[in-house]
Amino acid sequence: MFDYKLLSALAAVTEQAGFERAAQVLGLSQSAVSQRIKLLEARVGQPVLVRATPPVPTEIGRRLLNHVQQVRLLERDLQGQVPALDEEGMPQRLRIALNADSLATWWAAAVGDFCTARGVLLDLVVEDQDVGLKRMRAGEVAACVCGSERPVAGARSLPLGAMRYLALASPGFVERHFPDGFVAGQLAQTPALVYGPDDLLQHRYLAELGIEGGFLHHLCPSSEGFLRMAEHGLGWGLVPALQARTQLASGTLVQLLPERWIDVPLYWHHWRHGGQLLSDLTDHLARQAARWLVA
Asked: For residue 165, what is the enclosing H or E element?
């Protein structure tokens, strides 16, 4: 029989990225949380966490976290059917991983009505679209929006559509670096904007132009900051067409190659046995995402 106090401690340490914040969330001392983790490890006979900064679940730890996530969702279903079981009257909360560009553009509009009508609180974890699935694999989230089609074990994936990215820069940047007219082959020698180490979109774009190897770039781990830096001429970058409508209309940003863009498919991953709330959100996204994403 599982001791869910011990499993809750494991979930809190992983979700809060440390023992101190986990203790605050659980209303316990840091020592008490540590003791619960040690007791859980004694019962399963092996470590459930790698004591790093932040702590990382082991393989058995990930399996336990996956179980906790699904139990939480199923408990919410039961509380809805038997309200007396919901002693605290707490609102429903979903922990979801998604990429920063989705959060900055279509996500809020797509889920706003659903969350309001159902009284759902979101706990969002921002990850690049190419690596967000690792949060589900680690058992940290109930669902995610990412660029990977293949789901993890015990989950399903749903194609949502694609985000279209345009290569944009300010007019001043273009004049400064391409005074005699734009030459694609020179892009590697002009500063680019890259979201972070996991962002390979600019690499892919240059490769499609026949440019291989390294290139000059800024690192900017903020979707809004990325756009601001492009507007102010610090570099060129691949920006969601949804995000740059105003700038393109006003001329503060221009396309480097109007005939070339990149479409990045996005998929919604969710636990197969994640309860009615997660199933309803999945159905809602299936209907709504097409309003903003490219088919």
From this structure: strand 155-169
What is the mean predicted confidence (pLDDT) over 24-37? 92
Residue 125 burial (CB count, 10 A): 14
- Residue 84's φ and ψ, nearest 5 degrees, are -65, -20
What is the pLDDT averaged over residues 144-148?
92
Q: Is residue 113 part of a domain?
A: no
Q: Which stretch of DSSP H or E encloses residue 216?
A: none
Residue 17 inside a domain? The answer is no
- pTM given for the model: 0.78
| Residue 257 lies in domain | 163-264
- Do 281 and 107 touch, CB atoms closer than 8 A? no
CATH of the domain at 168: 3.40.190.10
Radius of gyration of the chain (CA): 22
For residue 247, with 0-12 CB atoms within 10 Å meaning exposed, 13-18 middle and 19 or more buried, which class applies? Answer: middle
Confidence of residue 64 (pLDDT cuts 50, 70, 90): confident
Total number of domains in the chain: 1
More confident residue, 89 or 156: 156
Sorted by sequence, the CB contacts under 8 Å of residue 132 that are 6+ apart come out as 97, 98, 99, 125, 144, 145, 146, 147, 148
Q: Does 248 fall in a domain?
A: yes
What's the confidence (pLDDT) of residue 136?
A: 84
Q: Is 200 a member of any domain? A: yes
Average pLDDT of the residues in 218-241: 96
